[in-house]
Amino acid sequence: MKKQTNININVLPFLLIIVLLFVWQGISYFQMVPTYLLPSPISVVQAFIADFGTLMANAGVTLLEAFWGLLIGVISGVLIAIVMDLFTPLYKAVYPLLVISQTVPAVAIAPLLILWFGYGMLPKIVLITITTFFPVAVEMLSGFRSTDPDLIHLMNTMGATKWKLYYYVKFPNSLNHFFASLKISVSYAIVSAVISEWVGGFSGLGVYMTRVMKSYAYDKMFAVIFLISGLSLLLIWLVTFIQHKIMPWETNKK
Amino acid sequence: MILLQTQHISKTYTQQPILSDINIHLNQGELVSILGVSGIGKTTLFNIIAGLIAPQTGQVLLKGQSITNQTGKISYMLQKDLLLPYRTIMGNVILPALMQGVAKHEAEEKAAPLFKVFGLEKTERLYPNALSGGMRQRAALLRTYMFSKEVALLDEPFSALDEITKHQVHDWYLNLMKRINLSTLLITHDVDEAILLSDRIYILNGHPATISKEIQIDAQLKQQADFELSPTFLKYKRQILDLL
Questions:
Q1: Which of B92, B93, B99 to mutate to test the interface with A (most CBs of A within 10 A)?
Q2: Fewest C-beta atoms under 10 Å: which of A2, B126, B137, B207?
Q3: Looking at this predicted complex, what is its ipTM?
Q4: Where is the ABC transmembrane type-1 domain (chain A) (predicted)?
Q5: Structural domain that includes position B102
Q6: Rounded Cα distance, A111 and A158, in Å
Q7: Are B89 and B204 within one domain?
């Protein structure tokens, strides 16, 4: 009986999406909203199929930017977390600055980065790095600092060096925090790539988006929005999949 | 033969004296308890013995050699088993060896036969979350044993277990000590546990804490059936409670 309820609950979001698609299709079909403002789901799918090649080529560019930005963001986030964990005065000095830096919206920095670094891939990677390193740094630091002090005590009695303490205790202990931040960072990476492409660039989903918007092709606009959303979801799923593979003890719980 | 000894240990924290002139010793094969109320300084004393903190005065001797303020010489086990959830039982057990620079395969070879001795057969590749509380404590004890094969410092290791499991683990531990010739220094605030397990009991009390009494538990009387319900047991208990 309980299992039946769980199945129903799992199916609910999909049912809701189907209902919303039907309502949306109905609104378009009965022309309750002009189709140039709100194209029907079917015409969005048709636009997606028709422009599939272009969309994929642009998605490739956006993903490449996101990959490099995320990679640098994650590495720098982890390194900053280690340094802040090791040196408390540095943590006290740097942490407030990090928080303040995150109150500046990415849209506001993007034009400056284009001005400084040109229209190529570099300003996009810089923006993605800036937006993705913060969640990783904060979460990793929180993971390091939440390590059970008794465990650190025990490792010290065994004569563990600082690096062995990180390798055997602090890093594995922070993996949950790391993957939680990575899930946030992958979606930030895609969104930041698109924002920086809006401001200036030659290719990428953001550039594609501004082009179709200027030509009032809203069916293509919706298609690219769904593609961006789909890519973010796919990357989040990929992170979850890797997490389960790397952390088997979490899935093997009694 | 005296295995472990503290001589005139004193410790002060922020001008507050915690321990004063602590002299205790542990003979080969003995189980000695340190009994005291919570916050009296039992754990501070263990931290000094384990080398985690330095005493103001005095020294810690292991087989006559000073190990004062030296980590990596003697390890202890806490109430929490502190098994790393992301390492298998084997991975946890060999951790002390890895910390001392022993190669992984070599450490595993040394640990493998001990799984049977500690009643942990077929748990090598399991993660700690697959084990019961009692089994986890055994694994933590094996890890402690892997670190120092002669002396085990146990800081209330059985207090998290339920009464029935605790009794089983007590019997098992006493048998194990005899089998592997292990000596144990135990911190507890459980008077019954101290009487049942110990050869001798040190009473720690006062501010700053000192050893106010050393009580020898009669080994022959302990062998009697229902010792826990005997008048002798109650006599020991009354004496200890009066001292505390």
A1: B99
A2: A2
A3: 0.74
A4: 59-243
A5: 76-147
A6: 53
A7: no
